[in-house]
Specification:
This is ABC transporter ATP-binding protein. The chain has 309 residues and is an alpha/beta fold. The chain has two domains: 226 residues, Rossmann fold (3-Layer(aba) Sandwich); 71 residues. 31% of the residues lie in helices and 28% in strands. It is built from nine helices and 13 strands. It has a six-stranded mixed β-sheet, with helices on both faces. The chain has a four-stranded antiparallel β-sheet with strand order 11-12-10-13, with helices on one face. A three-stranded antiparallel β-sheet has the order 2-1-4. β8 and β9 form a beta hairpin. α3 crosses α4. The protein is globular and about 70 Å long. It starts with 9 loop residues before the first strand and ends with a helix. The model has no long low-confidence stretch (mean pLDDT 89).
């Protein structure tokens, strides 16, 4: 959490956005308020239609809010989008900024010129971002021939080209496999640790983000449902995932809701923390236990519970 005397990188004050659909108005954002300081990382969470993409578009100066205001380094991103263009990088999942007829390298050179980078600076940055994102062998390939995952990495390369102080990332993992996600998250962690890059990331692929982002903003129907530490968000669920490995396939009936695998050698269940001792006593009645592990709920499980409530 930033202190009052430190100028925030990102600030939203009572943001409200309304869209008209058919004959009715839909409130996409209502009263959204938060601040994010230099080098902080925010996970933007919520279900489909919660307002995550809308919020990122407002912060990027692509959408003018009907109510409230957004500020990047104290400036209105709608009014000063050109002035701020080199200071933040943007990825909009599902919307490409790549020209399909140009190669990846040609696209990056074009955007380097738009950012106002010198040719030498652009060449150096192309080499750096291509190496960091595994795009070196794809620089000569036309954007139209890229796979979904390759295109998303190229979009991230565009965002990183001007060495931005802030990254606004909407679904940056689309089309990436587990290894690709891990690589991108590692890169974001490096940028955050070494350059103090501020991160706002909205994604349905939540695995691994806790190692990069420390704060969370949960949107529900356009309103802030939670704002705070990711760790606090996880602790809000009153269960732990208990996994028991038996010496031999257990005998008897498993507890309701438990998952049994490995031919009866493994049993997993969601158990309230205060009920874990009695649960383990039940397990002893089923057989000799070889190993027991107790884990906090994953971020995916946290969001599943939020979406159910």
């Amino acid at each position: 959490m930033i202190h009052d005397e430190i100028k925030p990188t990102v600030e939203a004050r009572s943001l409200g956005v309304t869209f008209r659909r058919a004959k009715e108005e839909v409130q996409a954002l209502q009263g959204v308020t938060f601040r994010l300081g230099p080098g902080e990382g925010l996970a933007l969470l919520g279900g489909n239609g919660a307002g995550k993409s809308t919020l990122i578009r407002v912060l990027a100066g692509l959408l003018l809010p009907k109510e409230g205001e957004a500020r990047l380094w104290g400036l209105d991103p709608w009014r000063f989008r050109t002035r701020l263009a080199r200071r933040y990088g943007l990825v909009l999942g599902g919307r490409s900024r790549l020209s399909p007829l140009l190669s990846v390298e040609e696209n990056l050179k074009l955007w380097g010129a738009l950012y106002g980078l010198s040719r030498a600076h652009t060449r150096r940055r192309i080499q750096e971002v291509a190496e960091a994102l595994g795009l070196t062998s794809l620089l000569g390939v036309a954007a139209s021939r890229l796979s979904l995952g390759q295109r998303n990495r190229a979009e991230l390369a565009l965002a990183l080209l001007p060495e931005p102080e802030l990254l606004l990332l909407d679904e940056p993992f689309i089309g990436l496999d587990a290894l690709g996600r891990k690589s991108v998250l590692g890169l974001l962690q490096t940028l955050k640790a070494n350059r103090g890059t501020t991160l706002i990331l909205a994604s349905h692929e939540l695995s691994g983000v806790e190692g990069v982002l420390e704060r969370a903003l949960v949107l529900r129907r356009g309103k802030v449902a939670f704002l705070g530490d990711l760790a606090t968000l996880r602790r809000g669920l009153n269960f732990r995932r208990v996994r028991v490995l038996f010496q031999d396939p257990f005998q008897g009936n498993p507890p309701p809701g438990a998952n049994v695998s490995e031919g009866g050698y493994v049993l997993e269940a969601k158990v309230a923390p205060e009920e874990i001792p009695s649960f383990l006593s039940q397990m002893l009645a089923l057989g000799s236990m070889r190993e027991v592990s107790v884990q906090e709920p994953s971020l995916e499980e946290v969001m599943e519970e939020w979406l159910r409530t």
